[in-house]
Design a protein that fits this description.
By secondary structure, this protein is mostly helical. Helix content is 45%, strand content 8%. The structure holds 1-deoxymannojirimycin (DMJ). 1-deoxymannojirimycin binds next to helix 20. Keywords: Calcium, Disulfide bond, Endoplasmic reticulum, Glycosidase, Hydrolase, Membrane, Metal-binding, Signal-anchor, Transmembrane, Transmembrane helix.
Length: 673
Amino acid sequence: MYSGAAAAAGPPRRDFISVTLGPEEAIGVGGYNNSKAWRRRSCWRKWKQLSRLQRSVILFLFAFLAVCGVISYTSMGEAWKSITNKSLDEQRTEQEIPGLKLANPAVLPAPQKADANHGDYPELSLQKPPKPPHVRRGPSNLQIKAPRRDMRLKTRHDTIRAVEELVEADKVEKTEKSIISWRGAVIEPDQSTEPPSSKIKEPEKPSSMEAEDQKEPVPVNERQLAVIEAFRHAWKGYKEFAWGHDELKPLSKSYSEWFGLGLTLIDALDTMWIFGLKEEFEEARKWVANDLVFDKNVDVNLFESTIRILGGLLSTYHLSGDSLFLEKAKDIGNRLMPAFKTPSKIPYSDVNIGRGTAHPPRWTSDSTVAEVTSIQLEFRELSRLTGDEKFKKAVDEVMKHVHTLSGKNDGLVPMFINTNSGQFTHLGVYTLGARADSYYEYLLKQWIQGGKKENELLEDYMRAIEGVKKHLLQRSEPKKLTFVGELAHGHFSAKMDHLVCFLPGTLALGAHNGLAADHMKLAEALIETCYQMYAQVETGLSPEIVHFNLHAQKGHKDVEIKPADRHNLLRPETVESLFYMYRFTGDKKYQDWGWEILQNFNRYTRVPTGGYTSINNVQNPSNPEPRDKMESFFLGETLKYMFLLFSDDIDLINLDKYIFNTEAHPLPIWVPA
Ligand code: DMJ
């Protein structure tokens, strides 16, 4: 069908159409013409000469080939991307934890829709978590790394000393041959978790194994360095005079024993990990491996040993990935279980961990409400890690039972519960302070831990906050500070424990997780009050309890302090709440307030030979009357929250992935946001 020459040569073949070409187009005449224009015209003619059916078939074939081409291009691109990404991740992980493959199953259950069940509670409308305005998404700092020295260092004596020590630590790091890699420094790769015989499902892996956490840490800043320096000073005293014992007595250069289980050391493990104190962590780890024995004829308090020991071991396991800590956590968890063998299943306050017996205090068969309802995060996590449901069942039963109890006042609970009858006792007294505080905290935190599905917990929490607003909130004079008082048989008392200062942080956490926006407003008002409990006092440190003035009186501040209440135990609640408030608002004033508090701890509670001490009199700067005791929560909580408060890295214990227990030990959220 193409050539004029052929056409000229004789009759056209049957299946060709004869075409008469002009002279310039005839090959024979005009010579070989292969110009683009000619070819285009020729093709077009050929196309026009096809039948309609032929054209349709060709068009269809073209379309079909084009579609196939697009599909195979996309899927090959994806495959190529995943091949290259995977090999990079694998290389990185292999360098950090030899033998660890990314093929490991996901650590936590697959994410679910956070608001899946909210239909049941129309009044509890959830908001979208607000994005913190100030923070960039930075790398996770869960890997231990010595803080970098390329920071802007200032002239403050403390800071310089801290840096010198850190340089020293760097040197030690380089010579430590026993370390596999820092993240895996203490991981013995062959150890595996051995689920107990009553195993019901596969145990979970530690959250540190998440690929997402394998990022470069953000360098610490000057304020964080000052916290590290404070920690090192406290640790120096503990190491020298109280190693392996419960608490340091820094003035008498000795120690005190509560359970005889190295409380301070265990409480401080994850703090050291987060601060990047490798050498100290390694030494403490050795003590846990060789000297921490739970098979002891000793009575321990169920709540205190759960939040400090079980909580501390579990979080250290998560951060370090070292199965030693899980093994120890399982051991203590099992030894605490006899506490739940009561007629009502409300646990006894005390357990003999060597004998396997439990009992209430000598003078009563009551337990404290906050104690029996603030062990759940830890036991539930132990079940998830071991695959053994018995821990979770025991503590969930307590919550379910308390949910149904009468004797509450608009969601506010009394302070005692009887282990025989399972009923509240001493009805009519309501506080957010001692003996009730962490009941409220754990309602919200369990709800978050479990993926926001356990509606009874949320319901109880929301009711309780309404109860607080209705019965316990008042304003002081002259500054009109919002505070949380107490109610005793219908009488309001303007007394507030420092312990109540956990509440602004908890309210802010709830608001961040979609609860009512007015919770955040209340949090803002309350944290201001908690700060004033420090700022209005002569030493700049809060007493254990304050009384607020309800009526303006000339020469009187908002805060009054009774002689019996003017001690300070180095408690964490205010800095804890400052940390949450800064994370969620980015308002630097919270960091500045925390900085003031740290300086006042340094001024009035620091013991030159090592350690910090509780004091008896926050109103006397010239003699604050040191008590000679450093509580374990100063290292476990107070300094940890300070360090986190001064950080701008939201991935340094990301609050959408971790929930802090009431002793500041971070545990993974099962269904992270
Ligand atoms: C800690 O043991 C815990 O924070 C507990 O919830 C309350 N008491 C101390 C700190 O003040």
